[in-house]
Amino acid sequence: MFAESGYHGAAIAEIAHRSGVTPPVVYDHFDSKLDLYRRLLERTRGELLEMWAEYLDGSAPASERIPAAIDAWARYVQSHPFAPRMYFVETTGLPEARAMHEEIQGQARLALAAILGGEAAGLATTGGDGEPDPSLEMAAEVMRAGLTGLATWWLGRPEVSREQIVAIALDVVWVGLERVSAGERWSPGA
Amino acid sequence: MFAESGYHGAAIAEIAHRSGVTPPVVYDHFDSKLDLYRRLLERTRGELLEMWAEYLDGSAPASERIPAAIDAWARYVQSHPFAPRMYFVETTGLPEARAMHEEIQGQARLALAAILGGEAAGLATTGGDGEPDPSLEMAAEVMRAGLTGLATWWLGRPEVSREQIVAIALDVVWVGLERVSAGERWSPGA
DNA sequence: AACTAACCTAATTACTATTAGGTTAGCGGA
DNA sequence: TCCGCTAACCTAATAGTAATTAGGTTAGTT
User: Fold this and answer.
1) Looking at beta carbons, which pairs linking A74-83 to residues 24 or more positions away fall under 8 Å?
2) Quick one: CA torsion of A66, A103, A11, B99, rounded to 10 degrees?
3) Which of B83, B109, B147, B167 is deepest in the core (most CB within 10 A)?
4) Are A151 and A77 in contact (CB under 8 A)?
């Protein structure tokens, strides 16, 4: 319901109704609407991290690990169609909810930047453990937002196969990698 | 304020206050909050269309027109920092507001798909005037969402120059073109 | 028999869009 | 000069919505 209608649009009364109970029961289980929202986000985050853990630091070469990770992501989206909207997109609820989303999006961006930086043979990384190179971060953000948009678009076109989605998504990642590898030309100070 | 706080988060009382008036004055000028919202969206749409008209159907080659259009887009974002959030992103307000955004995003996606299809020497287009090829549409959606994400990210990093943003954005467009036609790249430095 | 989990109906509270009704100031015409 | 007319503004309701809580019932469990 949060994915369908946004934070404000999802009313406790209707959440309770669709669960077959009344509002006070919701409050027997959650401190507040925001608490419910936070727990849903955290559950999703946990599932995604658990799912990706095996792909992201395995010993297989990137040419196998990355397609496997993308495919796992597409499977997750397929089996959790609310996730792209609620987990990846929403940024307009309460200030607290927005802060959670900005944190999540930032984590995703940094993870992608680390992957790009690591896979790109060490090019264009500055600090090592701190802030990534801005151009890496920009490339990562384009990837993140692009993949999120693709997943959201997919919701409205369920007839599109997962293979097609994965193919496009992989192109985004490959070209991103290629771009970073070739990319000193737009590094700051160059 | 809609960009800052979302549709629900922007209260008429505060909108009026920041304008130096009281709520009834807002209703002297707009039928409702939704009407105000719609007019803001339509103004932005008009400005963008007017701005792009000269680039999109000119006679210059794509290698000049597309960078010029992207640069114009970046200038618009720079001078209207609220635009990426309110115009391109928000999807969680009232159902009517969501419908407006979905329409706008759909128009942008179709426009990008048409550009990709047209510039890609006619490859992969099916109908001509109706629905584009799904793979074209997917590539367009990745571009649209990626550019939107990049613009939104830029809001938090105003120290990044427009040139850097344009360079990345151009590569994104190149990704789409590459994907569709494997055409020759015209990114800077090539 | 005490305890707890799960559930209910019926307030309560707070917020916020919207409107009612009225005041003031400028302005064109009789 | 005086008279409507209108634009822009105000204070003070109104009204609907929605989160949250008060207080209590029932059924199972130790």
Assistant:
1) A74/A151, A74/A162, A74/A165, A74/A166, A74/A169, A75/A162, A76/A47, A76/A48, A76/A51, A77/A151, A77/A154, A77/A165, A78/A162, A80/A44, A80/A47, A81/A3, A81/A155, A82/A2, A82/A3, A82/A4, A83/A3, A83/A44, A83/A151
2) -70
3) B147
4) yes
User: Chain A within 8 Å of B61 (Cβ-Cβ)?
Assistant: no
Q: If you average pLDDT over residues A136-158, what whole number do you get?
A: 92
| A106: chain B residues, CB-CB within 8 Å | none
Please tell me the distance in Å from A9's CA to the nearest CA on chain B.
7
Question: Greater confidence, A30 or A94?
Answer: A30
| B128 CB-side CA count, 13 A | 0
Rounded CA-CA distance A79/A48 in Å is 12
Mean of the per-residue pLDDT values of chain B:
82
A/B interface, count of CB pairs below 8 Å:
124
Residues of chain B with pLDDT under 70: 56-58, 91, 118-132, 175-190
Report the gap between the CA of A29 and the closest CA in chain B (Å). Answer: 26
**Phi first, then psi: what are they for B119, rounded to 5°?**
-75, -20
Angle, CA A51 vertex, CA A43 and CA A90 arms, to 5°:
45
On whether the CB atoms of residues A91 and A103 are closer than 8 A, the answer is: no
Per-residue pLDDT at A176: 66
CA distance A176 to B146: 12
Distance CA(B105)–CA(B99), nearest Å, equals: 10
* Geometric angle at alpha carbon A171, from A169 and A176, rounded to 5°: 100
